[in-house]
């Protein structure tokens, strides 16, 4: 992904929140039900991995909107996890992960933690974005892992797991938790992926054009919400690649 040292960071939300975000001019932390008593803002590194389900054909306000940012200032990052922490707490991952505490996988060195996770477990950003993790055998060989490193070995195994009926690619998506508001201005917003119908609103179009950010639009189809995420992924990657190779 070019010369940029860390992948871009993506916050995905439902269209129903778009106008309030524009009115605020920033993303705001919200009370978290995983880390009780904290207000947090969640991102995933490199991929728009946050998803949701809804029955029936999706209405406009249910559709995904993805905000793509340059790597967030490390001082603003509260925690980094190599996977979706909510799925871990809900015990959606395989049983071999339940022998550990969530804190065993918590990292606090901001962007350095992200680049180290990518390098250690995937080798490079391209492999990370494609979800192609190193095998546990490769990790054992490269880093001389022993039985003392059970948590690392278990993590390596998890990152190799494919889709199941209990979790999606969030088992191999780096989660970034931020405890600060993130302005849409200040040159940090690389782009946004939104339904065409929102961009047809003159105020929305003018707002994002004022930031000179990369706006990718997509059309509505007679699909449920899940039917849109593949296109969201593709357009986020386009934004990331255009940023990395201007």
Account of the 3D structure:
It contains nine helices and ten strands. Helices cover 31% and strands 19% of the residues. It is an alpha+beta fold. It has one domain. Strand 3 and strand 4 form a beta hairpin. The strands form two sheets. Strands 1, 3, 4, 5, 6, 7, 9 and 10 form an eight-stranded mixed sheet that branches. It has a two-stranded antiparallel sheet with strand order 2-8.
Strand content: 15-25%
**Main pleated-sheet profile:** 8 strands, mixed
How many β-strand runs? 10
Determine the fraction of residues in helical runs and give it as a percent range. 25-40%
The number of domains: 1
Q: What is the tally of helical segments?
A: 9
Radius of gyration, whole Å: 18 Å
- Derived from helix and strand composition plus strand pairing, the structural class reads alpha+beta
Q: What's the average pLDDT?
A: 93
Q: Give the SSE string.
A: EHEEEEEHHHHHEEEHHEH
Globally, the shape reads: globular
Low-confidence spans: pLDDT under 50, at least 5 residues?
none
The separation of the N and C termini measures 11 Å
Key descriptive features of the protein:
single chain, 246 residues, alpha+beta, eight-stranded mixed beta sheet, two-stranded antiparallel ribbon, 10 strands
Summarize the structure.
31% of the residues lie in helices and 19% in strands. It is α+β, with helices and mostly antiparallel strands and 246 residues long.
């Amino acid at each position: 992904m070019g010369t940029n040292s860390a992948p871009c960071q993506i916050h995905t939300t439902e269209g129903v929140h778009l106008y309030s975000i524009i009115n605020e001019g920033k993303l705001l932390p919200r009370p978290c039900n995983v880390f009780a008593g904290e207000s947090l803002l969640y991102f995933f590194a490199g991929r728009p991995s946050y998803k949701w389900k809804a029955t029936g054909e999706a209405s406009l306000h249910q559709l995904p909107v993805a905000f793509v940012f340059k790597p967030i200032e490390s001082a603003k990052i509260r925690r980094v996890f190599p996977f979706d922490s909510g799925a871990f707490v809900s015990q959606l991952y395989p049983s071999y992960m339940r022998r550990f505490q969530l804190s065993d996988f918590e990292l606090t060195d901001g962007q350095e933690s992200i680049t180290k996770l990518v390098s250690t477990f995937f080798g490079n950003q391209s492999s990370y974005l494609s979800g192609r993790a190193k095998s546990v055998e490769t990790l054992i060989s490269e880093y001389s892992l022993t039985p003392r490193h059970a948590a690392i070995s278990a993590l390596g195994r998890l990152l190799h797991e494919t889709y199941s009926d209990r979790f999606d690619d969030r088992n191999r998506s780096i989660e970034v938790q931020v405890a600060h508001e993130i302005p849409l201005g200040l040159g940090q917003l690389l782009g946004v992926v939104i339904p065409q119908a929102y961009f047809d609103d003159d105020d929305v179009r003018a707002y994002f054009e004022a930031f000179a950010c990369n706006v990718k639009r997509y059309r509505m189809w007679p699909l449920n919400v899940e039917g849109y995420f593949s296109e969201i992924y593709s357009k986020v990657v386009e934004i990331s690649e255009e940023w990395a190779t201007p």
